[in-house]
Description:
Layout: H1 2-27, H2 39-48, H3 53-62, E1 72-73, E2 76-77, H4 79-91, H5 99-102, E3 106-108, E4 119-122, E5 131-137, E6 140-145, E7 149-154, H6 158-163, E8 164-170
Antiparallel strand pairs: 1-2, 3-8, 4-5, 4-8, 5-6, 6-7
GO molecular function, one term: cysteine-type peptidase activity
Protein name: Spr peptidase
Keywords: Hydrolase, Protease, Signal, Thiol protease
Amino acid sequence: xxxxxxxxxxxxxxxxxxxxxxxxxxxxxxxxxxxxxxxxxxxxxxxxxxxxxxxxxxxxxxxxxxxxxxxxxxxxxxxxxxxxxxxxxxxxxxxxxxxxxxxxxxxxxxxxxxxxxxxxxxxxxxxxxxxxxxxxxxxxxxxxxxxxxxxxxxxxxxxxxxxxxxxxxxxxx
Length: 173
């Protein structure tokens, strides 16, 4: 009889411990942080970290507008037109209309020294500048893509690394 009482006490303690453990597990408020290294998450982070709220609004207002060579409105816009409007509206800078002419207006900087609003120039068709984007932060930039319209992209992508020819800020005369 004494053996079964001792066994019952031990079994009861184990059962009680299991019940308490389950209650704590069910009631605990765990704060789970999901970290994502996806391109979309990094792009969202770059947008969230913009210093200028006006720039944020400008980009979100234009995101998705289709590409149109020579376009300057929400019906369609090209890369140099987008850069021209953004720099004028956000920074009060008057740029030339064409990307190759815009490239002549900057003081070159190393990529690691770029700041929000600096211009980045590319050459996809040879030696001459034929595309422009605006640097945001963390190696992300906004531009009018010929295939996707106005988008935020990652400068680390090989296609941009191969085509980038110069970057910098507008030089004051």
